[in-house]
Structures are given as C-alpha cells and as structure tokens.
Amino acid sequence: MVDRALSLLAAFTEEHRALGLAELSRRAGIPRSTTVRLAARLQDWGALERDERGRYVVGLRLFEIASLAPRSHGLREVALPYLEDLHEVTRQHVLLAVRDGSEALLVERLSSRGAVDIAYRVGGRLPLHDTGVGLVLLAEAPELIEEQCALLPAPEAKRLRRRVADTRRHGVAVFARPHPAPVSSVAAPVRDATGVVVAAVSVVVPAGRPRAYEQVVRATALAISRGMGAQRKEKGQ
C-alpha cells in the first residue's frame, strides 16, 4: 500500500503538475478504484490537494515535510546569507545544488528580473554532465564519471572527461550552453567539516565573460564551507 501511495506521488512531474483521476491512475499504473481510495487518504493527510478544476495537485504538507530534510535545511540556512551577497553583487541567477544519485538537486535559487531566462526551479533536478553545479558534484564522484560517459556519444564523453579534469585541477567549473538560451555558469564546491563536498554553488550569466565571476563564486563557496565547519587549508598543506 505504501509503494502504491508513493507511486501516486511520483506521477507528478514538472510537466504534469495537475492530474485528473484517470491520468493519475494511468501514470501511476494503479487501478482506478485503488487510485480513488489512496488519493482520498493522501488528500486527507495533506499530501494531495484539488485545484479549481478538481484535478489533483501536490499538497503543501509535502513541502512542510521536505523542508526538514537535513541535507538541504542546514545547508540552506548556512548558505543563504552568502548566496544573497553573491546575488547582490552579480544581479544574476545564483544556484545551490546537492547531488542525489546521478543527478543534481536544486535546493536554492535566487534570481533577478533582468537575468537571462533559465528553467531551473527549487526542487528540480539537473544533469551532472550538462551544468556547472553538476560538473562540480561529478568531479567528486569518480564512480559516476564512466557511468555518465557511457550515456553519451564518444565525442561528448571525451569532452566530459576533459571538463571534469579541468574542474578538479582548477577547483571551479566554467560551463557554457548555447540552448535553449546562450548562458554560462561558474560553479565551485562547498565542503563540510570533514572536507567532503556536500554541495555546489554557481552563478548563471549571459554567455560572454564567465571567468570574470570566478573569484566571487570561489569566495562565496569558501564562506559557505567555513559556515559548514570546513577549515581553510594553509599553503603547502
């Protein structure tokens, strides 16, 4: 029963935020009668709600519960003041992401009205191989690199290995993407008290001179890392 209830919740995606009963049943792969019963229970608990057309949508109770996740809550609490400073300086999109399996999960985003258009949203998932924050997180997960490369054509896989190597070497990822809008991102790792990379922070800017943002992104990531308990390494250590 729990698995079926989770299947109902998993039926909702970025492209399918509101679902009628029949579509919810079909996408979850659960009989209509069972869907009716489980959806009613989830609605009573607050995990589902109904919109003005009677379709099911994700309820606020899930947001309340998700906000307690330790990997995002403590991190966001520490990071937010520094992200706000970065946003104030750049007036561009500022992202904070963590790795969840083979994807990056966006846990915070600050944006300006005049910034370049992007589709990223808090709670959304980003590919590791195709984003600045993803490259930073992938560089710290060597077991995933070949897995990611296996999904790409040979030329793209070679390019990904080079990007990961550059990210490791320089401690920052600089990534450009021409579609759907030409943008560049600069990302740096956030470390915890043990030195493990727990997140990546980035600024997403119009294509042009992304390296002009390297220093401020590095400084932001370092400040968040110190807030997470990381110690600054002295030269030569």
Structure description:
- The chain is of the alpha+beta class.
- It folds into two domains: 2-63, Arc Repressor Mutant, subunit A (Orthogonal Bundle), CATH 1.10.10; 70-227, Beta-Lactamase (2-Layer Sandwich), CATH 3.30.450.40.
- It is built from nine helices and nine strands.
- Helix 1 packs across helix 2 and helix 2 (21-28) crosses helix 3 (32-45).
- The longest helix is centred in the middle third of the chain and has 21 residues, at 70-90.
- The protein is globular and about 55 Å long.
- It starts with a helix and ends in a 10-residue tail after the last helix.
- Mean pLDDT is 88; it is low at 233-237.
CATH class of the largest domain: Alpha Beta
Content of β-strand = 15-25%
Would you identify the regions where 5 or more consecutive residues have pLDDT less than 50?
233-237
CATH fourth-tier homologous superfamily of the largest domain: GAF domain
Computed CA radius of gyration, to the nearest angstrom: 20 Å
Give a count of the beta strands, DSSP E runs of length 2 or more. Answer: 9
Order of helices and strands: HEHHEEHHEEEHHHEEEH
List the helices and strands and how they pair.
Layout: H1 2-10, E1 18-19, H2 21-28, H3 32-45, E2 48-50, E3 56-58, H4 60-66, H5 70-90, E4 93-100, E5 103-110, E6 125-127, H6 132-139, H7 142-149, H8 154-170, E7 173-177, E8 183-191, E9 197-206, H9 214-227
Helix pairs in contact: 1-2, 2-3, 5-9, 6-8
